[in-house]
Amino acid sequence: MGNTFVSEDPNEPDETRSGNGVQAVERVVRALEILAKEGSAAVGDMAEWMGVHKSTASRILGALETHGFVQQSSRRGKYQLGVGLLRVASSIPRRLSLVHTARPVLEDLAQQFGETVNLAVRRDVYAVNVDQAMGSANLATYDWIGNLTPLYATSSGKVFLAYLHSSDREELFHQIELKSLTPHTHSRQQLEKELPDIVQKGFATTHGELEDGLNAIAAPVFGHMGDVIGAVSLSGPAFRFEPEDDVVVKAVVSAGEEITERMGGPASHDRS
Description:
Elements: H1 15-18, H2 21-38, E1 41-42, H3 43-50, H4 54-66, E2 70-72, E3 78-81, H5 84-89, H6 92-95, H7 98-113, E4 116-123, E5 126-133, E6 148-150, H8 155-162, H9 166-175, H10 188-201, E7 204-207, E8 214-222, E9 228-237, H11 246-262
Antiparallel strand pairs: 1-3, 2-3, 4-5, 4-9, 5-6, 7-8, 8-9
């Protein structure tokens, strides 16, 4: 059959005869990964990057083209990812509900520390909490779900600000009225000094900036396109909760990375 990967090079092992179907699958996956990274590539380049004979690369690309997973670009001889992949990918977003995916991670974090854990998304100039897990140590059961909280005074909000493009952040600052909600609320100057550190460290903290006596830490959640789609936060009263404690930081950052992975986002070493 036309889609069977049978070697035309007598010096190259035949995957079909050797029974090494796993190798064939790995080569197909590798071809798709290369095209996803490079945008387009000629058969010769694909062969070199994959470490196979040119005839093998041509056969793999031909099979993928038959099913619409790759297509020849306007520049003859070059291949790029095809629309057939959309048939497969289109079923993913329906299953990757952020709230549903993050829920077990939130519950584990709340159980570990006994404090309140929130999942937030950005809506214009606000961070909106879309889910919450309550820890056993809570003195009250305040429900943050649905609340619009200012970006500049919450740990989740700081995450969203920190990972925005500078021009988008500048535009947001023109829309935001930075009110002193407590004596600890940061000014714009303080925020702009703090935001680069948030990206470098991978988390943001607040110390009584939204409510006096309430501390919090948040880490970003990345989507499959590498953009920040949410933030997971852990908060508690200042008398017992230190957001920059090493154990707390490690747990919250790990929670963000776990939700990112479940959402199909890039691993931390793949993000610039």
